[in-house]
Recover the amino acids of this structure.
């Protein structure tokens, strides 16, 4: 396994779940990253505390030392808090894993990659700008395309449907499993398992 295939390559890893703060957004599709971050925090056995503009918890996950964060800013300003925590812990771009919702994947589908564009995702755009590069890992949680002519910006800010909610806990757990596989086995292996 190539060292660059594993986030952080033995150093501390920053796991950033993306979403919007506050109870009004909690069940939105755009908050899939926060839901996965909450699941990972439960697996670590830690509680989130405020640090550098984010809620953060430190611990060990899949044998890796991690800092798990949920930015306290709105989605389109995620980069500031992520960069702030990365600077605080001296974590380079290759040690960052961003967990986010993805319109271009069917609901519940999980995909992993390193680098790439932002595909219109404002949270990724903000992180790329604040970090000065796009070569960080992404774990993408599929939310599907909006029905009919619904504006994607409206769709992502709607709650998961009743049908989606029936499988939500399973899908969040599946995505959290993918994050653990990435940390433990590296990108290529995780892609083989989850793609």
């Amino acid at each position: 396994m190539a060292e660059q295939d594993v986030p952080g390559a033995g150093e501390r890893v920053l796991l950033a779940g993306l979403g919007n703060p506050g109870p009004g957004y909690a069940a939105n599709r755009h908050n899939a990253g926060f839901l996965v971050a909450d699941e990972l925090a439960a697996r670590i056995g830690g509680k989130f505390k405020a640090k550098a503009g984010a809620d953060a918890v430190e611990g060990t996950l899949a044998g890796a030392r991690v800092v798990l964060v949920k930015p306290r800013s709105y989605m389109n300003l995620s980069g500031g808090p992520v960069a702030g925590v990365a600077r605080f812990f001296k974590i380079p771009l290759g040690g960052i894993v961003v967990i986010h919702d993805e319109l271009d994947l069917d609901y519940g589908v999980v995909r992993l990659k390193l680098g790439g564009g932002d595909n219109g995702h404002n949270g990724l755009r903000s992180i790329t700008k604040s970090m000065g590069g796009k070569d960080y890992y992404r774990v993408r949680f599929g939310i599907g395309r909006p029905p009919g002519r619904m504006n994607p910006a409206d769709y992502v800010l709607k709650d998961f449907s009743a049908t989606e909610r029936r499988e939500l806990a399973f899908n969040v757990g599946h995505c959290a499993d993918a994050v653990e596989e990435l940390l433990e086995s590296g990108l290529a292996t995780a892609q083989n398992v989850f793609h």
In short: The chain has one domain: 7-194.
